[in-house]
Amino acid sequence: MLRLAIGTLRTRVGGFVGAFLAVALAAVLVTAAGVMLESALRTHGKVERLSGTDLAVAGSAHLARTPAMGKPPADSEMDPDALRQTARVPEEFVPRIAALPGVRAVVPDRTVPVGLPGGGGAEAHGWDSAQLTPYALTAGTAPQSDGQAVVDARTAAALGIAPGARLDLATPTGTHTVTVTGIAEGRGPAAVFLTPAQARSLSATPDRADFLGVQLNPGADRGAVRTAVDKLLKAAGPQFGDPTRPQPRLQVVSGGGLARLEAPAVTEAQEATVPLVSVFGGTAAFAAVFVVAGTFGFSIRQRLREIGLLRAVGATPGQVRRMIASEALLVALAASAVGVPLGYLFAEVLHTLFDQANALPDGFVVRDGWIPGVVGAGTAVLTTQLAALVAAGRAAKVRPTEVFGTTGKRRILVPLLRYTLGLVAVAGGVTLLIVSMHLGGDDGASTSVAIVFTFMLAVALLGLPLARLGVALIGRPLALFGRAPALIARANGAADPGRVSAVATPIALTIAFTCTILFFGSTEAHETVAQSRARTTAGTLVVDGRDGAGLPAGTADRVAALPGVAAVSGTVETTVLDGSAGDAEEQQARGVDPGVGKVLDLGVTEGDVARLTGPGTVALGERRADALGKHAGDRVRFWLGDGTPYEAQVVAVYANAYGFGDYLLPRDVALAHSRVAAYDKVYVAPAPGVDRAALTAALAHEGRVLDRAAYLDEVSAKADEQAWANVLILGAIGLFTALGVVNTTVMAIGARAREFAVLRLSGTTRRQLFAMLRGELAVVVGLGLGLGTLIAYLTLGAFANGIAGSFSPVMPLGTYLVVAGSAVVTTYAAALLAARAVLRRDPVAALGARE
Amino acid sequence: MGKRAAVIDAPTTDTTAVSLTDVTKVYGRGSEAVHALRGVSVDIHPGSFTAVMGPSGSGKSTFLHCAAGLDRPSGGRVALRGTDIAGLSETKLTELRRTRVGFVFQAFNLVGSLTAEQNVTLPLRLAGQRPDKRWVREVLTRVGLGERARHRPGQLSGGQQQRVAIARALVTRPDVLFADEPTGALDTKTGREVLALLREVVDAYQHTVVMVTHDPVAASYADRVLFLADGRLVDRLEAPTADAVADRMIHMER
To answer: Which CATH architecture has domain B5-253?
Structure first.
């Protein structure tokens, strides 16, 4: 069989080039995604500032699991209970841990972001944290009282300051002027050390430290201390609010865990990279299966005669299956041999691309392990075997009598199983659509991809009836022109719907995917801008931190005191988790000042956001409230960003939530349970008739001032920016589907040499032949475009319904025309070039030629 | 004329290469059903050369496919050397066919990527047997292609390709060789040579040949001719001449 497979491959190179390219491309993309994934998973921030720290006590990065919830999923990135923020540690543990044998010192560490003169930023800590590095004084003395500070040597040099100098620090509670008492040398980012008391007073939670750094006595048994601390923490029980509810656990960390505490942003960036490259690899793999299966299936269809012959001379169905599987294996191995090494190279390219887009965490290094290569080759082999299995199932059913071609009685069986599966796929797609219509945000986004996959599966399975329908719908008006070529074109389409669907399917795939991914962003951006516009009025002024830095919490009070300000509210960007533990969903949330309702039009439908005052209050976005079945006055339970259980009364329900947050929390609650210590923006409503220029100038002392138009421009630009990652995915898909289109088109034309010869010998001119082909292509392309656009429209519509409440996807016509035009041009170019090559042969010779 | 099909040959079990008993074949269902065979019974004896004739649509190809085990009858019994094919799975049937039946097609149907010799040994390889080189040589020599074993089909003339196909059909030492219009795609002279070859394998090597044709001259090479019309065996002719066959055909088409 292998020999026969090799023989077939050798003489039918043309038919396998397409499959080979598709498989090789799959191997390249999957290997590259694997390399990126492995690299991302193995990236850890470096331990710098905590180099002198042995152990640390910190909140866990996940809600603790109860025994009933079982083990966490192996892939921790998929854990729905993962926490963005690390819960803070009560200071009462400091003396208790310090009393354990072997422990030399316990430091409650706090990191408060501060702004330095000239726009730079630094981390402020208590001076006791200096020993965690350690920092050593090179000049001056340690801070003795509030208002004194030690500055790290690099920062001092950059600012040109020496002990005795005065330094303005922009802190979350406003600008403080401190006297520099000393300069210290150590490792890590720019640092300012205050007295422990002042650091505590600047932080959002005076009674809780960000984490506790633990140093051991020389020669102490680290393992024993660890066990002792663990025991102590366990005995202390839950530390975060309602002890009956799932919540983070205090735990002892060391090594890589210290890096996470030291630079949470790096870890977060790393974690953000993982789903990105996973989606990239997964999408590439799906498209690969689709295109490879399509190409294989089609090439088998073209060879039914040859397979019938083999059956007639004594090949059993099993042998036919094995022959096809062997061919597939040979193709996969050859493609892997080329694709896997290229994949490692492509990972370097991806690295550069991601890096330029600033999407990679610091310390990210491409690691060329062997696993991605094996996965890439494995994908190639599995994909082709899967495709071969499907194709061979059909081929093995070929009756030996089919070798007699049209004179033989070809059984026309309705492939019941195939159609049943197709209808199941349609039903699945519709179900997902309905689900998606009531989801929003990230869930809606991930469901959308599933919808496209499911519907494409249905298109592939129901290709024949869809092709018949397409021929009937599009072919009829075409044939109305009445010319012979158009008539033949329609007849050809009707006679071989299999060919029509084989070429139309990759076109539909291209359009469905491209449009969904592209217009996903535009739908989302449109809704974000629309709701941002609805929330603001023409007069609204927005103060933003410079260089993306936040605004100190005192900003709102100072702004409120300015003349000509009618109302003001800052917002704090954070997240909450709702749902149930083990299946919690992260939701966007904002901490706000009580006056938010006077500045922003939130479209309040129930209650009053002004009542968003102390702990225990929350306002809910309307769609979220509907999903939860809650109204103003009801009580809701969820978790704050750091995993602390929170129970609150719903004081208001508001409509304009998209791009803002579905949960509004009192500002101090948000600050106490987030890593951020400042407002992301402060919104200002000027009093009527105020001198805007003067007000703007006054606000400019606080930060960057935007009027409504500039603000909306930034919102729109930011929404577009998030789409860049999609471009990579789009590029991968585009390559594949274009390859699929070209493959099937060229194969379909190549197999028709005899037919073209017959037509030419019976008096069809080249021009008429091309006219006929263009007619056929019109049907094929029309069908592909129609199906693809329909799928994209439904998917995007459901998504739009999920986020905006109306089935109105935003599909800019210009972009759509470019996408559709590219697909049309690719198909026509491939087909007409292939036809030219075929027609170059002498028709008489072509007619005489056997396959 | 008008004789009942069943009495053409009394069925005997031991000495038949192929035995068809009241075989029917229906394509399609309901009002669109096509009755290709309406109860055909015939025994083919070893070492005989039988031609099957009939007008277009008389069911001769279906007869051949059913007799050769390429297609399953809708009713009746088909036995190859006493083995009923009805209960066999597709794989078992293929294996049976592989060892007991050779097939020659109108359009030579060689695998283009394999040489003449590889095409000839293909059924053996498919059966998992190691081809006996001497036997393969001999078969190729019998069909007059000893010199061209390493040529690919594309490098051979139509007549030569059909010889390769005959060699392929003979290589498994089948009980019966079925030929479907074997001269249909050949010019007259080459066609005669192929028919002479078929005659020779019967006379010299005691093979059994069943050939469907519409050419009275081709039929005259056979020991006897069976006439099919409208799915029934309607007549037969022993030791036929071309003229006698043509005469019968003209009568039938009236």
So the answer is: 3-Layer(aba) Sandwich (3.40)
